[in-house]
Amino acid sequence: MPNKIIVYSGSFDPATYGHLDLINRTLDMFKDYKVLIAVSNNYSKKNLFSINERVEMLDEIYNQNSRIEIASFTGLLVNFMKERNINIILRGLRAVSDFEYELKLAHTNRNIGENIETIFMMPKEEYSYISSSMVRELAYLGGSVKKFVHPVVEKHLFKIYKNLV
Predict the structure, then answer these.
(1) How far apart are alpha carbons 45 and 30 in whole angstroms?
(2) How many whole angstroms from its chain centre is CA 60?
(3) Active-site position among 67, 82, 84, 94
(4) Does residue 132 carry a catalytic annotation?
(5) CA 88 centroid distance within chain
């Protein structure tokens, strides 16, 4: 029987309030489950933060929550899940444009993994337009990111972009 864990994978470069919203609402909906935040490298992007920095930020945000585990991985998510006997993936959908890609990914994961199921969730409306790339650009240009990221993330962005408002 699979572990009562839901995997939420992504690059989280950086984690936004949209990501945190999905994590927190998943914990509220699935009271008997843990959430494993699986931090990956997106090889098609140049990452702002190292994978270790992204894990550390999420650890700092969720260090008091015993139902959250944070780990990094490389390779296929389904292999990472098989090693841990997990079969549920959480994926976020911000817009209709996300759906086609995410649907293909879910079908592929189910096809190559055994009993892998994907749950799609939408962030609350106030977070639906936030993306990590938008936050990185805003920070780079010296804008305030307070409304978009946790103070832990803001602190790390400030270390890189000292001109943050």
Answers:
(1) 32
(2) 15
(3) 94
(4) yes
(5) 14
Our answer to whether residue 45 is catalytic in this structure is yes
Structure tokens at 59: 């650890």
Give me the catalytic one of 9, 11, 19, 136: 19
Which pair of structure tokens corresponds to residue 153? 């993330």
14 with 136: CB under 8 angstroms?
Answer: yes
Antiparallel, parallel or unpaired: β 88-92 and 5-10:
parallel
The angle formed by the CA atoms of residues 43, 113 and 80, to the nearest 5 degrees, is 50
> How far is it, in rounded angstroms, from Cα 49 to Cα 148?
17
The one catalytic residue in 4, 45, 147, 155 is 45
The H or E element spanning position 134 is helix 132-140
d(CA 113, CA 67): 25
Instruction: Give pLDDT tens digits along the chain (165 positions).
Output: 889 999 999 999 999 999 999 999 999 999 999 999 999 987 777 899 999 999 999 999 999 999 999 999 999 999 999 999 999 999 999 888 789 899 999 999 999 988 899 999 999 999 999 999 999 999 999 999 999 999 999 999 999 988 655
The four Cα atoms 70, 74, 77, 78 give a dihedral, to 10 degrees, of -120
Q: Which of 9, 11, 40, 132 is catalytic?
A: 132
